[in-house]
Amino acid sequence: SKLTRILDGCIGGNCKTALLVCLSPAVKHVQETLSTLDLAARAMGVEVDAKVNVEAAPGAETSSAVAEQVMRLERELRDVAAAVAASAPSAASVELLRVAEERAAEAELACNKAEQLVESLAAS
Fold first, then answer.
1. Which residues contact 97 (CB under 8 A, 6 or more apart)?
2. Is 74 in contact with 41 (CB distance < 8 Å)?
3. Dihedrals phi, psi of 16, to nearest 5 degrees
4. 17-24, long-range: CB < 8 A, 24+ apart
5. For the chain, what percent of residues have pLDDT higher than 70?
6. Rounded CA separation 4/14 (Å)
7. Mean pLDDT value across residues 26-34
8. Cα 79 to the chain's mean position, in Å?
9. Nearest-CA neighbor of 48 among 17, 84, 12?
């Protein structure tokens, strides 16, 4: 029948299928009801061994390729960290920079006080 051909991919294919049939209690539709029940009985008798399709997408990396890439990136990260550590300023240069910044701040305060003194003298 047409219904069987339409459902051919589902019934007996690689999928799970639920079939809902509608029946009529009217006497004039007895033949249609019987053929529907016959189809449902035959569909229930079909054994389906559905399996999940597992295919690698084109260009998909395998787990070993991903593991190699992770190891390569970790090596790069270690190399960059070592380079940053090697170029980091020494403790002495950091201390000199801190002292210079403190002196610059003190000089700026002294300059501000001098400007305020000059302004107060000019105003009086």
1. 89
2. no
3. -100, 135
4. 17/43, 17/48, 19/43, 19/44
5. 71
6. 16
7. 90
8. 27
9. 12
CB proximity list for 23: less than 8 A, separation 6 or greater: 33, 36, 37
Cβ-count burial 48-73 (b if 16+ within 10 Å, e if not): eeeeeeeeeeeeeeeeeeeeeeeeee
The model's confidence at residue 28, banded by pLDDT at 50, 70 and 90, is very high
Look at residue 32 and tell me whether its pLDDT is greater than 80: yes
Cα distances (Å, whole numbers) of residue 71 to 76, 84, 101, 118:
9, 20, 43, 67
Contact indicator for 21, 33 with CB cutoff of 8 Å: no
DSSP 8-state symbol, 19: -
